[in-house]
Design brief:
The chain is of the alpha+beta class and 306 residues long. It has helices spanning 106-110, 120-125, 174-180, 182-201, 203-216, 245-271, 282-285, and strands at 4-11, 18-31, 37-45, 50-57, 64-76, 80-92, 94-102, 145-153, 156-165, 294-297, 302-305. It has one domain. Helix 4 runs antiparallel to helix 6 (245-271). The longest helix is centred in the last third of the chain and has 27 residues, at 245-271. The mean pLDDT is 84.
Length: 306
């Protein structure tokens, strides 16, 4: 896909001899999607109301690869950059395990009209909606739709950077720098992934699911609460649970590492900058005058004409 994800252009208008800065991310590519391995389970019942889903992708020889193109530009009197990099994330033997608990209303299922069989909103209505209070939290009873368990694991995880077109000498060193801190970056990324999984397994995702179910009835044409105009949610946005100390450390490390990479690129480019010494007589040499102009010859204190 060649869609642009980010395209930021900052114009400095020559401040400190810097004209512009550009950063663009685009072209997401996912490779080796055909490496699905056994066991593959989709909506497999393991309990009266629990469905198990599992997927394994990416082998040691053909890891699952996700790549994003990054274009960076920098225009100044010191140096010029117009470089293209490919950011790559590779994982092998990636396994995703998701168990979903869903309690379907048998009456709603048996009375389901054929006219709405392709309407996904109506299928969601067959799961009983929870009763919520004014703040959007379930009042009583067990959830009717929930993520019972979410687990994501893999054998290897690697970050890589390759040059597509690196004209500046600083950007040519980025793959080397990333390779030096690859293990630390991978560990920090895994730490952030663990925090995301903990959100899915916690109350944060359950409240979001409850609110979602509570709003689906208005989108199904055969439901008594159907409305052509989808009502706005009056609930306050969910606040993300406090980050753990380890998560803050991972975020801080990622931020510092990226800042240091940028500094390395700029430092190497500036080091290669060949400063041109100005000619003190350049203004005099570039001065344009007509032949009729009378100029003062300071060496003789006399006026001469050209």
């Amino acid at each position: 896909m060649e869609n642009e994800l980010i395209n930021v252009i900052v114009d400095f208008d020559g401040i400190s001899s810097v004209d512009s800065l550009q950063l663009k991310l685009s072209g997401i590519k996912i490779e080796n999607l055909d490496t699905v391995a056994e066991p593959l389970r989709l909506l497999q019942p393991i309990d009266a109301h629990v469905l198990k889903n599992s997927l394994i992708m990416g082998s040691s020889d053909h890891p699952l690869r996700t790549a994003i193109d990054m274009n960076s530009g920098f225009d100044s009197n010191y140096f010029f950059m117009d470089d293209s990099l490919e950011l790559i994330i590779s994982v092998s033997n990636a396994e995703a395990l998701i168990s979903i608990m869903a309690m379907m209303n048998s009456k709603a299922f048996l009375e389901f009209p054929m006219s709405d069989i392709l309407n996904i909103d109506c299928w969601r209505v067959t799961i009983s909606s929870p009763t919520l209070d004014d703040e959007g939290f379930r009042i009583e009873g067990d959830p009717t739709l929930a993520l019972e368990h979410v687990l994501i694991s893999f054998t290897t995880f690697a970050l890589d950077v390759s040059c597509i077109s690196c004209e500046s000498i600083g950007m040519q060193e980025v793959p080397v720098v990333i390779d030096l801190i690859n293990d630390a970056l991978a560990n920090a990324t895994l730490g952030l992934l663990d925090h995301f999984i903990s959100l899915l397994n916690g109350d944060f995702s359950q409240v979001a699911i409850d609110r979602y179910l509570n709003s689906t009835a208005s989108a199904c044409p055969h439901h008594p609460e159907y409305s052509v105009i989808v009502p706005d949610s009056s609930y306050e946005s969910l606040s993300v649970p406090l980050l753990t100390e380890d998560t803050w450390e991972d975020i801080a490390f990622m931020a510092v590492a990226m800042a240091e990479v940028v500094l390395v690129v700029f430092a190497i480019n500036i080091e290669g900058y060949d400063r041109v010494e100005p000619n003190p007589l350049s203004a005099q040499n570039d001065f344009i005058y007509s032949e009729e102009t009378n100029l003062l010859n300071l060496s003789t204190d006399s006026t001469i004409s050209y």
